[in-house]
Amino acid sequence: MKSSLIQLLKNSRFIESLRGDPSYDRTPRPMRDSFYSLVEPDRVPQPQLLSVSGEMLEELCLSAPLSQEDIDILSGNRISQARPYASCYGGHQFGHWAGQLGDGRAINLGEISGNNQMWELQLKGSGLTPFSRTADGKAVLRSSVREFLMSEAMYHLGVPTTRALSLIQTGEAVLRDLLYDGHPAYEPGAIVCRVAPSFLRFGHFEILAARDEKENLRQLIDFTIANFFPEIDPQNPKALVSLFKEVQSRSIQMVID
Question: Which of 34, 81, 172, 214 is deepest in the core (most CB within 10 A)?
Answer without folding.
Answer: 172
